[in-house]
Amino acid sequence: xxxxxxxxxxxxxxxxxxxxxxxxxxxxxxxxxxxxxxxxxxxxxxxxxxxxxxxxxxxxxxxxxxxxxxxxxxxxxxxxxxxxxxxxxxxxxxxxxxxxxxxxxxxxxxxxxxxxxxxxxxxxxxxxxxxxxxxxxxxxxxxxxxxxxxxxxxxxxxxxxxxxxxxxxxxxxxxxxxxxxxxxxxxxxxxxxxxxxxxxxxxxxxxxxxxxxxxxxxxxxxxxxxxxxxxxxxxxxxxxxxxxxxxxxxxxxxxxxxxxxxxxxxxxxxxxxxxxxxxxxxxxxxxxxxxxxx
Length: 294
Fold this sequence. Notes:
- There is one protein chain.
- By secondary structure, this protein is of the alpha+beta class.
- It folds into 2 domains: about 20-175, Sandwich (Jelly Rolls); about 185-290, Arc Repressor Mutant, subunit A.
- Helix content is about 45%, strand content about 20%.
- Strands 1, 2, 3, 4, 5, 6, 7 and 8 form an 8-stranded antiparallel beta sheet that branches.
- The longest helix has 20 residues, at about 185-200.
- It is globular, with a radius of gyration of 20 Å.
């Protein structure tokens, strides 16, 4: 499987509903194609607790290596992805909730004083949580209790979960480094989002570095350096990886052959597509299709 995203990489899955905008789920990297989930963002805040194994988790340009017992705070609207470490599986708890669950209604004191300050903090796009840091250990204990609640099916789990999230937010607000918004960090994030969106809109075409760099207002060399510093991979590798991801659902369409799939995802020839597919997926497109259509 893979995360379903819109054209601008927003995740399409609902995280709860308007009456209770929260979702608690147990996840495994092995359930995703290539043991990784695609770059995406959502307006909800996401809290992660690693239960077993390890994960390489990236938020915007920052990469974390998390192991069992560690956690992560990922702020609203931040691009993030996760992948396995040394091809090993990872099991983790994901708690995803809309900020309005905390502040109630727009322009309330809770929103303006305690929530917006965190959402707009340039230093809190994400934060790894370690049991070695006392106040972060408290946050991890809160997440562990939320996990227990989800397993117990307690009749009042919603009420206790919200109480726990308030506890989490109070500790986080008091100890997190909110900082002062930086215009340069905002510009860099916007520039990165423009590049990713441009690739998503044009990956089926014969893209050139000149075109990608121009969309971000950078020279070719600066564009390559900028992208690698923030995405931890080259621009070309990201493009190939994205094209492979987009080809996966097409391979399951029995009305399309492999040549049509390759060309529709921006590959110049089916042989080159097969070569790159094998590099990222560990098998040929044909064997992938046959295994999934059994």
